[in-house]
Amino acid sequence: MTVHDFTVEASDGTPRPLSEYAGKTLLIVNVASKCGLTPQYEGLEALYRDLKGRGLEVLGFPCNQFGGQEPGTNAEIQEFCSTNFDVTFPVLGKVEVNGPDAAPLYTYLRSEAPGDFGPESGFLYEHIKRSRPEAIGTDEVKWNFTKFLVDGDGKVVRRFEPTVTPEELRGELDGALA
Q: Which of 27, 94, 126, 132 has a 20 to 30 A CA-CA distance from 54?
């Protein structure tokens, strides 16, 4: 099984088979409009514009599971992304990333790259330790803007926790696209 075996929902409700991205390097990110990390949209868009010609696709999946920070409808989310960050990468349909209603894609991503979330994540680790201590030491997505790097064959390469900024991913992405 690979990421290419999944079909997700586009923001307009139509199915989007991820096999459409075969041969492309993917950065899959759970996003939110009302998060302290929301400015990462700007860095994600910059990466997308800079590296799309080399085969990078950024896929945003809005998620409201962390502090209710993505309360809008799919249409409202699209408007927010376009108006505030001039986002041109696909922001797909809203999903859950953890729990019994997690999107199958996210269940797969988490199992393939459980992450190494710990004290090196700084303020976010302290926040999760206080607000969701049961999540520490699990494969759960800990917060908005967790990023999964997927190679052109659909294999999950690595998970980056939310505190890793898009700018910090540049070297890793350059290597993946080489």
A: 94
